[in-house]
Amino acid sequence: MKGVVDDSGRAILPIKILCPKYPTGVQVDAWIDTGFTGDLVLPQIVIEDLQLEITGSIDGVLADGSGIELSTYHCELEWFGKLRALEVIANLGQTPLLGVGLLSFLHYLAITPTPPPSSPLPLSQNHSQLGIDLILMRFDDVIEG
User: Fold this and answer.
1) Closest alpha carbon to 13 in 60, 80, 72, 74
2) Residues 20-42: b if buried by 16+ CB within 10 A, e if exposed
3) In angstroms, rounded to a whole number, what is the distance separating the alpha carbons of residues 11 and 54?
4) Cα 95-26-34 angle, rounded to 5 deg
5) What share of the chain is helix, strand, coil (3-state, %, to 5)?
6) What is the tens place of the pLDDT at every residue in 93-128?
7) pTM of the predicted protein model
8) Domain map of the chain by residue range?
């Protein structure tokens, strides 16, 4: 999987979410958040647009130590060519966050300089390029490749 590092130094990865409204999937750009131990957080407005089914709630702890109750929703994520069922967490933020729960099985993460692209990477939002690729690979892909 390839992503980018934006002009603010955030690692951004395009992910494909599947749900009843978009059975073939819709692309969403997610920040990789290594401080988030779960799988995926989506802004409530994105969850409403995707019309995800609510499945419950969880108690969470924010970075400032305060507690909060957050709703959870069901969707599927295309992750390294396979569908993965997820319970995503809703928040009132503006950016999807991809947590270490999804990154935990990866054995290769590279941030490499690249020449400036002749055309922008097909991300759903317009992120400026720094000539840096973010590359995620499964261990199997490293062995086979």
Assistant:
1) 80
2) eeeeeebebbbbbbeebebbbbb
3) 28
4) 35
5) 10, 50, 40
6) 899 999 988 887 665 555 555 544 444 444 444 444
7) 0.75
8) 2-144
Q: H or E segment at 57?
A: strand 53-61
From residue 109, give the alpha-carbon distance in Å to each of 30, 104, 105, 113, 136. Answer: 16, 11, 11, 13, 5
Helix H or strand E encompassing 142: helix 139-144
Closest CA to 51 of 77, 74, 85, 79: 74
Which tens digit of pLDDT belongs to each residue from 31-53? 999 888 899 999 999 999 999 99
**Measured CA distances, 5 to 57, 81, 114, 135, 141 (Å):** 32, 22, 11, 10, 22
Q: What CATH number does the domain located at 2-144 have? A: 2.40.70.10
